[in-house]
Amino acid sequence: MSAESALLERTFAVGRFTCTMTFPRPKPGAVVHMAVEWSPRMPRQLSTSEKAAYRAGRDAAVAAYGEQMGERIAVLEV
Q: Are 75 and 59 in contact (CB under 8 A)?
């Protein structure tokens, strides 16, 4: 995702990994999505504490995006 189209970018630690979420500037009528990048690589599996750190970082990033948009956003896990 190009930096020009990003409305918000958040980076946070997930155990030994770093996760970066980039949210685009939405287009009218389009489905909103985010790009997720991991460093140094995408984890194959997360420990219980890493899952908690990921969810906390993800939820904070999504909430910040919603605030910038002036909207309420829900995250559903199945």
A: yes
Give CA torsion, residues 29, 1, 20, 33, to 10 deg: 20
At 30-48, the pLDDT tens digits run: 888 889 999 999 999 999 9
Type and span of the H or E element at 23? strand 17-24
Q: What's the pTM?
A: 0.84
Q: Compute φ and ψ for 35, nearest 5 degrees.
A: -100, 135
- Stated as kind and residue range, the H or E segment containing 49 is helix 48-69
- pLDDT surpassing 90 at residue 9: yes
In the chain, where are the structural domains located?
3-69
Q: How far is the CA of 24 from the CAs of 15, 44, 46, in angstroms?
A: 26, 26, 26
Q: Of all residues in the chain, what percent carry a pLDDT higher than 90?
A: 62
